[in-house]
Amino acid sequence: xxxxxxxxxxxxxxxxxxxxxxxxxxxxxxxxxxxxxxxxxxxxxxxxxxxxxxxxxxxxxxxxxxxxxxxxxxxxxxxxxx
Length: 82
Fold this sequence. Notes:
Layout: H1 2-10, E1 18-22, H2 28-36, E2 41-46, H3 48-60, E3 67-71
Parallel strand pairs: 1-2, 2-3
Helix pairs in contact: 1-2
């Protein structure tokens, strides 16, 4: 989460409503940004085996209603809409 908090401090996301976190891994970046910016929603796009772990961390952070996980491979699948 540390990198997410650093990003949230160094860039103002308050003008943004949606974030696409490509290669979002465990969701740490999206979690930190959504914690800091209450109007922000995020979609994590990563390999299916990675988004399964991300879903666990997102549920623990109580942000499942604002962070969606989509499994896929950027070299084979289209990025999620929005």
